[in-house]
Amino acid sequence: MISEKMKGFVAGSSAIRAMFEEGKRMAAEFGADHVYDFSLGNPNVPAPQAVKDAILDITENEDPVMLHGYMNNSGYEDVRQTIAEHLNKNFHTSFSAKNILMTVGAAGGLNVILKTLLNPGDEVVTISPYFGEYRSYVGNFDGVLVESPADPETFYPDFADLKKKITAKTKAMIINSPNNPTGVIYPESVIVELAQLLSEKESECGHPIYLISDEPYREIAFDGETVPWITGYYADSIVGSSFSKSLSLPGERIGYLVLPDSLDGAEDILAAANVANRILGFVNAPSLMQRVVARCIDVRSDVDFYLKNRDDLYLALIEDGYTVVHPDGAFYMWVKSPEEDERAFVDRLKKDEHILAVQGRSFGCKGWVRIAYCVAHETIEGALPGFQRVAEAYGL
Amino acid sequence: MISEKMKGFVAGSSAIRAMFEEGKRMAAEFGADHVYDFSLGNPNVPAPQAVKDAILDITENEDPVMLHGYMNNSGYEDVRQTIAEHLNKNFHTSFSAKNILMTVGAAGGLNVILKTLLNPGDEVVTISPYFGEYRSYVGNFDGVLVESPADPETFYPDFADLKKKITAKTKAMIINSPNNPTGVIYPESVIVELAQLLSEKESECGHPIYLISDEPYREIAFDGETVPWITGYYADSIVGSSFSKSLSLPGERIGYLVLPDSLDGAEDILAAANVANRILGFVNAPSLMQRVVARCIDVRSDVDFYLKNRDDLYLALIEDGYTVVHPDGAFYMWVKSPEEDERAFVDRLKKDEHILAVQGRSFGCKGWVRIAYCVAHETIEGALPGFQRVAEAYGL
Q: How confident is the model at residue A247 (pLDDT cuts 50, 70, 90)?
């Protein structure tokens, strides 16, 4: 009774859903304290006190008709202006309210911009491994996701491969830095090279190739690393942001798109994205939360919590003999499977040690697994002996 | 640079957007007090005090990690159970949490169910006039919206026409009662006849035809009218609800789908709708608001406010000589244009009297206009002399 397309999407969803259900089942059987669930990217740092204060103050003092009412589909003008000025201050840009479109999280924003841009058959290039939802988002609009495998040492783009994958059919490229699932941040040198390649390809193809930077993890960067702001490097750049991680508000569905004036066809894109936000059924980003994030624009969740998790887990896994990509940001660790089929490794972790990780093929990259370390520190402490035993069993 | 499909959507959006911009321009030129804007269905009754109390109490007392975090894509289990029990109490149904999917407003819910059901080319029948967004929502999934004109006297379905429009290609039908734009509520006799017709057509076609009831205005019903609950009449019924109007929370984007066990293919539909909610980029309905509406499930905005507006406007327009459909519910009035082309009538109201109404063709029905009377009572008082002068000018 369901559509053919949805049958594919449902089948594709089953691996992660099965893991989620398995985790619940195991917690019931063995006790939640004896299951180490690293499967989901759900921040476990509470929203900062400033968020709570803002919700209370705004609810107490603002006019409820305005506060909970419809506004322009792109969001409250003053909220958009606040975000534009925040970006201008941090990145020396010159955005105004019209360049900001408030969205139902970064996921909503990606769907809005892909709806705006894609004709059926248009190709969207991304670097694998990648957040598996990109496949669905591109598929929603009958686009074709083209994978360009990352350099297996650095997990930066492999420019030799990328050069071949970007063709006249390419309408857009999606990058994600800090990366889910690898934790890698692309340094400025990578962004410069990418911008140069895309500019060359634009000239070759004679049409724009939009670079969509999906940045929900921008604020979770360690060791003084900074995430280059792409609109300064490439004119046809679009940024998708979210407060899900920076303010620990994933369930509230609040984010924004940045649509610079430098975009080829900026005026049409701005108008169409506004309409896309409406007709996709988002209508507008949740109104109270728009006002809350504007108040908390300079506030951040406690990143040190993730840093401690990263350090303790990374050092232990390296010590055990695992091959691990050192995460610059986000809250994911990308671990090489000690045997070729990473599903067997995932299975062993689960069965022998009650440790839940996600198979790399869910991110378009076999042979690796993702560990989401946005968990209580006790979960990490509890899991370390298990990781060690598995490493020993593999003879690492 | 934007997609071909979006070009059509943007063009189709321009009439209402132009009216909105015109209203802002006129308010600036003539003063907001001298412009009578009946163009938008934005509730102007504040959310009830109970909503404010719930936001404050929940924010103050619930664990922020849980309150603002991800949950199952279908929503918090306890919130869904509360809604199920509320429906069971009111409509003698036997729903449980699994039959309720929390959505980003009714618009989000309609997109989720249409994504779940439609293959390209599938037909979705609706009664014209209808909420113009249905065209976009069905088009999002390459479905075809088929209009069946309402009986021009009652604005109930014209069953003779409907019989012809429902064919083997029909996958679903959307109804909307209380209706936007007519204000009509379908009485039980209409629902019974509709259920019978659809059952016959299902047997004929050999496949299910899903009846999607879009019910954002259910709680705005006047004169003791009740809105029949369709799942009791037809097994393949799906209900889309929203708190936008009942609790005056349109900007918060909170609603739900009811997916009964009686649906042909219920299990697949429930699973696929959950996935559709995620991959369309909604992910989940805003989390704080889920918890707020569960607390306020028996609370309603002050409908008497709309009733007074309806009575004063309706009586005056009838007195002026206009032909008006008597609204049973919602906050729209459907007025016959005194000249064939309703755009000229809309134009005259705007130019001569600064009264903003929406052309019927935006709802798939020429020759009529929609007046959204969810406005301050002073707006109605201020507009009445203008309506009278225009009636006189037409010689009504």
A: very high
- Among B70, B280, B286, select the one facing A42 at the smallest CB separation: B70
C-alpha separations of A340 from A345, A361, B143, B220 in Å: 9, 12, 44, 61
Q: Which of B4, B6, B362 to mutate to test the interface with A (most CBs of A within 10 A)?
A: B6
- Cα atoms in the Cβ-side hemisphere of radius 13 Å centred on A308: 12
DSSP strand E in B64-215: where? 100-103, 123-128, 144-149, 170-175, 210-214
Chain A to chain B Cβ contacts (< 8 Å):
246
Query: Tokens standing for B321?
Result: 């000589």
Sort residue A365 into left (φ over 0), alpha (ψ -120 to 50) or beta. Answer: beta
Per-position pLDDT tens, chain B of length 396: 899 999 988 887 766 667 777 888 898 999 988 999 999 888 889 999 999 999 999 999 999 999 999 899 999 999 999 999 999 999 999 999 999 999 999 999 999 999 999 999 999 999 999 999 999 999 999 999 999 999 999 999 999 999 999 999 999 999 999 999 999 999 999 999 999 999 999 999 999 999 999 999 999 999 999 999 999 999 999 999 999 999 999 999 999 999 999 999 999 999 999 999 999 999 999 999 999 999 999 998 888 999 999 999 999 999 999 999 999 999 999 999 999 999 999 999 999 999 999 999 999 999 999 999 999 999 999 999 999 999 999 999
| Chain B residues in contact with A279 (beta carbon < 8 A) | 9, 13, 133, 136-137, 140
**One-character DSSP codes across B193-256:** HHHHHHHHHHHHHTS--EEEEE-TTTT-B-TT-----GGGT-TTEEEEEESTTTTT-GGG--EE
How many Cα atoms occupy the beta-carbon half-sphere of B110 within 13 Å? 33
Alpha-carbon distance of A226 to A220, in angstroms, equals 10
CB B256, CB B102: distance < 8 Å: yes
Is there a contact between B209 and B173 (Cβ–Cβ < 8 Å)? Answer: yes
| pTM confidence score | 0.96
Residue A1: list chain B partners with CB under 8 A.
117, 208, 263-265, 268-269
Dihedral, CA of residue B68, residue B72, residue B74 and residue B78, to nearest 10: -70
**What is the C-alpha separation between A183 and A329, in angstroms, rounded?**
5
Token pair recorded at residue B229: 């609950």
Residue B51: exposure state from Cβ atoms within 10 A (0-12, 13-18, ≥19): buried
Specify the DSSP class assigned to residue A69: S
Nearest CB to A59 within list B40, B56, B108: B56
